[in-house]
Amino acid sequence: MARDRAFSHSIDARIIALLRAHSGGRYLDVGCGTGDHSRSVAEIAGAAGKVVGIDTDSAAIALARQQGGPAIEFLVADAHRLCFPDGSFDGCRAERLLQHVDDTFQVVAEMARITVAGGAVAVCEPDWGTAVIHGGDPDLSRAVLHAWGSSLRHGFVGRALPALFRQAGLVDVAVEPFTAFTTLHGYRSVRGQQEWDLSVGAGIAKNAGAVSAAAAEKWLDQLDAAVRQGSFFMALTCFLVKGRKV
Ligand SMILES: C[S@@+](CC[C@H](N)C(=O)[O-])C[C@H]1O[C@@H](n2cnc3c(N)ncnc32)[C@H](O)[C@@H]1O
Question: Among the four 53, 94, 230, 240, which has the fewest Cβ within 10 Å?
Fold first, then answer.
């Protein structure tokens, strides 16, 4: 999915607000990647606070460590078995993680476990069932988008977040949708960068047998024509869900 910088910043800022992040606070970023969002919350927590980012990808963690940050630590660890005692953090965040994990409930339950009573858990995930495209044959667009979402372990997890939060014992569960979209300019600029690269989606759908090779090619040609005519549009909604630990 394309990560437009302004879109990413708006989710980041909202998560910081939902966690009620403050100076001296302790926060965990689960599936932190190279740690951009861990650093955002660390700026608020300050030198008196503590932020930990964890990820299973040791290369991402090495990059995160190189960039460093105040009162921040990066660890190679698995979200299914968080290596911290109960109630270790004032807040816990994750973004675009659950779509990749084995067991979405176990990860949310672990996030709840390591959060202190009264603290917040915030998770933001896309749901590929919300993806829409204008500019190609609607049946082909639907087939490609469904195959694309299905190629992820949990490509449709966005809609399940409130249920997972309640199941994990979190209360005051609240949902906020964030919709990313791209038009002519976005499609052109992202296609070469492997982000929302619709030829990738067409390839996935073709390999999954959801569309024929000829249909995949036809669909991409239709989208190219739509771009030329200025009628192309694509959007995908991410759901940001917050809950409180009791
Ligand atoms: C799409 S990236 C998102 C990174 C970051 N949260 C962001 O929004 O920029 C998903 C990350 O989840 C990590 N991940 C996947 N499964 C994991 C697991 N079981 N435990 C911890 N991290 C995991 C991946 O290594 C990857 O860095």
Answer: 230
Pull the structure tokens for residue 217: 């090619």
- Residue 131 phi/psi, 5° resolution? -75, 135
**Cα 138 to ligand 1 centre (Å):** 32
Cα-flanking dihedrals φ and ψ of residue 217, to 5°?
A: -65, -45
For ligand 1, atom 26, name the residue with the nearest CA.
33
**What domains can be seen in the chain, in order of their start residue?**
5-244 (3.40.50.150)
Task: Determine the distance separating the centroid of ligand 1 and the alpha carbon of 37, expressed in angstroms.
Answer: 12
Chain segment 121-177, per-residue pLDDT in tens: 999 999 999 999 999 999 999 999 999 999 999 999 999 999 999 999 999 999 999
pLDDT under 50: residue ranges of the chain: 1-2, 189-194
Contact indicator for 50, 73 with CB cutoff of 8 Å: yes
Ligand 1 pocket residues where CB is under 6 Å: 31-33, 36-37, 55-57, 60, 78-80, 95-97, 100-101
- pLDDT (0 to 100) of residue 190: 47
Residue-by-residue DSSP string for 134-162: ESS-HHHHHHHHHHHHHTSTTTTGGGGHH
Structure token digits, residue 108: 């949310």
Beta-strand (E) ranges in 12-62?
Answer: 26-30, 50-55
Helices (H) and strands (E) in the chain, counts: 9, 8
Atom in ligand 1 nearest the alpha carbon of residue 29: 6
Beta strand spans in the chain (E): 26-30, 50-55, 72-76, 89-95, 115-126, 132-134, 171-182, 233-244
